[in-house]
Amino acid sequence: MGKIWRSDRVKALCEKMGISSPERVIVQMASQLVQAGKQNTPPVSLETLATIRGIREIRKVSLTIDGYITPAESGYVVYVNSQQPFTRQRFSIAHEIAHTFFFEAAGVQERHRAAEPPTDSLHIDSEEEALCNKAAAEILMPYGLFKDELRTKRLVARTIVELATVFQVSIRAAARRYCEMTERRFLLLALKRVALPEGTRGLALDWSEKPGHVRASPPKSLLVPESAPLFQTVDKDGFFTGRQSLALGGQSEEYFVDAVDVAYASRTTTIALVVLEPHPEVAIRTWALSDPQFRLVG
């Protein structure tokens, strides 16, 4: 049995489109908007898409929230938090654009009541918010454009960083999108440098992403000590490719890891791809969408 959707706006959107699945509806509408805006190469112009959806202005101001949308003369104004990183601002703008789909379907014009609202004055619909996040991913990283970018790239840690740069999204957003589109078995880890007792250092887990069919998950307590080859090499050279012992939800085992250092979230972060295939060295040499064994999901 599928998820039971309770939001009146979500139901109104599905009824308008004649499609029962809200996820399918929102992705379809986001894709149609990208096509209407003639966005054929990344990065997507959010200003162009905003104009199509009746957004007259995007204002970057100091806020305590990521962003919001308010009615304006014959349209809307989007406010986005100027203190957030550029990629976060782009996600917030795409998210607010997606709200206009629901406004139109439900026959309402606003998501809140005040022009400069405190957080508690916002209309918050958790189901609508989740779908707007899904739409934002499709707007910023359209399936077709993302797929085209992947065709000539191997699946290595540096590829995720390159995709984030090309599409002007966060590394985590690019990682999550990649995971949605593959049947390969791997984990993507973001590791941050931490100080350990007795003056040593290590790499601790900041976040992780994985394809939906992968069961293995790294524990929040995952730690790569300073003595490990991964730490020593990436700290010296900025990259690492080789075998490393990791405890991924059980006893420590040896995995093939490809990693690269990047400036991310105001610090140096190690993006590590942990290969879970039976023959990892072979897999990582051939993991590209041109590989006949690789099939896109969706």
What features would you describe in this structure?
The protein is of the alpha+beta class and 298 residues long. The chain folds into 2 domains: 8-140, Arc Repressor Mutant, subunit A (Orthogonal Bundle); 145-286, 2-Layer Sandwich (Beta-Lactamase), CATH 3.30.450.130. The protein is 38% helix and 24% strand. The protein contains 10 helices and 9 strands. The strands form 2 sheets. It has a 6-stranded antiparallel sheet with strand order 6-5-4-9-8-7, sandwiched between helices. A hairpin with a 2-residue loop joins strand 8 and strand 9. The longest helix has 21 residues, at 86-106. The radius of gyration is 21 Å and the shape is elongated.
Quick structural overview:
This protein has 298 residues and is α+β, with helices and mostly antiparallel strands.
List its salient traits.
298 residues; alpha+beta; Arc Repressor Mutant, subunit A; Beta-Lactamase; 2 domains; three-stranded mixed sheet; 9 strands; 24% strand; elongated; disordered C terminus
Range of helix content: 25-40%
CATH class of the largest domain: Alpha Beta
Number of helices, where a helix is a run of at least 4 consecutive DSSP H or I residues: 10
Distance between the termini: 21 Å
